[in-house]
Each structure stands twice: as structure tokens, then as C-alpha cells.
Design a protein that fits this description.
alpha/beta, Arginase, Chain A, eight-stranded mixed beta sheet, 12 helices, globular, disordered C terminus, histone deacetylase, HDACs, histone deacetylase activity, hydrolytic mechanism, repressor
């Protein structure tokens, strides 16, 4: 049985700005990189804040079949929505690719240089034959799609602020921190999105609601001592990554075990959201909505039904709406072919419940 939701006994220390000139210079450089970035751009009102690019798709010599992740999931989500007449392709927002300067906002230069090694990338995304390929191909066929999704997550912050919500049909690389990748996550898009929001949107309080089946150890390490970020993480403790150091920095942990049922899961989520509501007052919610909680997922090992996933998403969107806080949703993990249809059905449900508006892109009031 899943354990109760609770706040960690040792909260993060208060955030403080360093007085050292080195840290001040680093923060100034970070701020300037954000201010001069091209990833925030004007989106016309004919679009809805649903972000996707065909460049998200990872496919080259069958490497996409060497990992359980369905790299065509992102494309299929949009195809389902368009086939059902819910969305027109002209309404979808295409992001720009995150540049080296964009990535340096969070990542160290040494980490980004390490991705010039095909072996290093193969370890991060857990596709070992990739190590044998020239890095130029790895950059083009693997890392370019990831960088495009990073651009989508960052842009989603801007659109959520403007329109009340935004969904990046991709992203959610929550195992990557500024210094380390892993678990199919090469770039820390969640951390980047939040830092851009701090500077460009004048936001000072962000809540991460991470409901992927796996612990979000990447963003937990990045915001370990940052009181501006409150992390609610609900995950299966019996699967990857079991990062006990990062767990110390979760503000609100909900521990699950393999086999957790739909009813148990939703009950724990209700309890967690009630606690979060009284613990923190965010100006932005970043929702990591992995579908690896689905019954049958080989890596998540939970037993949540498709209707349970739809209810989960509705609860989180309703939480943000009732607090009148903009929300960014990322699709994150999900290792079954059925995930794409479940996500599409969930987006349709959010529209039917007037939690999002797929006609104008304006959040329903």
C-alpha cells in the first residue's frame, strides 16, 4: 500500500543570494543569456498553447526500438487530436531549438561538452549501440530532437503565463540536472523553464507537481536549496532512480509501491494536493504528467487505469485553476503504445471540463 503524503522533516534552507563576486558574475551571465534568448517569441491568437514539432521524433537506423520509450508517442498524440477534429495542425505552436547559450543557463559547459561523446549519450539514453555512431549523427538524430523539446518546454512557460495553460507534447526530462543526465534525459528542460520564468515572467514562486512514476531527481538536485521552488513528487520507490540524496530536497513526498491501484493512487493524490494547497502559494505550476503510471507499463510498475490517468490530469488542472495559477504540462515518461491515446483522451477531457480552451487558447474562467 502507498504511504501517506507528507512534508519532509528537514525543509530546504532559506534561499539567499551569494555576496561573492564570482557568483554575482555567474548570475548576471545567466540573466543575460535568458534576456537575449530567442526561445520566447510572439505566438498569434490563432494558435492554442499546445506545443509540438515533427522534429521531436527520434528515429534513425532503428535505434528508437532499442529503448522501451515510444519515441513516436508525441506525434501520435497530435495525430489523435487532429483525427478526432479536436485540433487543427495550424493551431499547434512549433518551438525553436534550444541553443548552446540557452542550455548554459542551467548546464555547465563541461556537461554540454561531454555530450560530444557518443558513448556518453548512449549511456544517458540507455541505447548502447549509439556509442558506435559518429557524434555528428547523434547530435542530428538524437540530441536535436531533445533540444527542440527543451525549446518547447521553455516556451510553454511564457504561453501559460499569457493564456492560463500550456501543454508541451514532449519534454519532462526530470532525471537530468545541470551536471548530469540519465534515464533517457539529456537536458534539464524543467529547470530551464523555471529559470526563464524567474527572469522573463517576473515569477518568484514555482510549484513542480511531478506525477511521473519515477522520482524527479534532476530538478530536485537543481533546486536543492532554492526556496522559490516547491516540489511535490509522487513516485514508485521500488524503481529507478532511487536517488536518496535528491529525495532530501523534495518538499512533499508521496511514496508508492509497485502494484498501486487506481483508487489508491487517486486517493493519495487528493491528499497530496490538499497539503500542497496550504503549504505553498505558487505563481506557476509545472506539471510533469508521465503516463508510465499506466497498468502494464514495464518501467513504472503501477496499476493505474487509462481513466485514472485522465482523472489525475483533471485533478491537477483543477487545482491550478482554483488557485488561479498558470500551468505548464509536460508529457514525460510512458513506455507503452497506448500512452499516446490516453494523453490525447485526457486533453479532450480537459477541454470538455472547460479547464482548457482548444478553440481560442484562452483559459476558461
Amino acid at each position: 500500500m502507498a504511504t501517506s503524503s507528507s512534508s519532509n522533516p528537514s525543509p530546504k534552507p532559506p534561499f539567499s543570494s551569494s555576496s561573492s563576486s564570482a557568483n554575482t558574475d555567474a548570475e548576471t551571465l545567466r540573466r543575460n543569456r535568458i534576456l537575449f534568448s530567442k526561445l520566447y517569441f510572439h505566438v498569434p491568437p490563432s494558435k492554442v498553447p499546445l506545443i509540438y514539432s515533427t522534429s521531436y521524433y527520434i528515429a534513425f537506423l532503428g535505434i528508437e526500438k532499442m529503448h522501451p520509450f515510444d519515441s513516436s508517442k508525441w506525434r501520435h498524440i497530435c495525430q489523435f487530436l487532429m483525427t478526432e477534429g479536436i485540433l487543427d495542425k495550424n493551431q499547434i505552436v512549433e518551438p525553436l531549438e534550444a541553443s548552446q547559450e540557452d542550455l548554459l543557463v542551467v548546464h555547465s559547459e563541461s556537461y554540454l561538452n561531454s555530450l560530444k561523446s557518443s558513448l556518453k549519450v548512449s549511456i544517458i539514453i540507455e541505447v548502447h549501440p549509439l556509442a558506435l555512431l559518429p557524434n555528428c549523427l547523434v547530435q542530428q538524430k538524437v540530441l536535436h530532437p531533445f533540444r527542440k523539446q527543451v525549446g518547447g518546454t521553455i516556451l510553454a512557460g511564457k504561453l501559460a503565463k499569457e493564456q492560463g495553460w500550456a501543454i508541451n507534447v514532449g519534454g519532462g526530462f526530470h532525471h537530468c540536472s545541470g551536471e548530469r543526465g540519465g534515464g533517457f534525459c539529456a537536458y534539464a528542460d524543467i529547470s530551464l523553464c523555471i529559470h526563464y520564468a524567474f527572469v522573463r515572467l517576473n515569477i518568484s514562486r514555482v510549484m513542480i507537481i511531478d506525477l511521473d512514476a519515477h522520482q524527479g531527481n534532476g530538478h530536485e538536485m537543481d533546486f536543492a536549496e532554492d526556496r522559490r521552488v516547491y516540489i511535490l513528487d509522487m513516485f514508485n520507490t521500488e524503481v529507478y532512480p532511487q536517488d536518496f540524496e535528491a529525495r532530501r530536497y523534495i518538499d512533499q513526498t508521496v511514496e508508492l509501491v509497485s502494484g498501486t491501484s487506481t483508487d489508491e493512487y487517486l486517493e493519495k493524490l487528493d491528499e497530496a494536493l490538499k497539503v500542497a494547497e496550504h503549504k505553498f502559494d505558487p505563481e506557476l505550476v509545472v506539471y510533469n504528467a508521465g503516463t508510465d503510471i499506466l497498468d502494464g507499463d514495464p518501467l513504472g510498475r503501477l496499476k493505474v487505469s487509462p481513466s485514472g490517468v485522465i482523472s489525475r490530469d483533471e485533478k491537477v488542472f483543477r487545482f491550478a485553476k482554483e488557485k488561479n495559477v498558470p500551468l505548464v504540462m509536460l508529457t514525460s515518461g510512458g513506455y507503452m503504445k497506448s500512452s499516446a491515446k490516453v494523453i490525447a483522451d485526457s486533453i479532450v477531457n480537459l477541454s470538455k471540463k472547460s479547464l482548457i480552451d482548444l478553440d481560442s487558447g484562452v483559459c476558461s474562467k
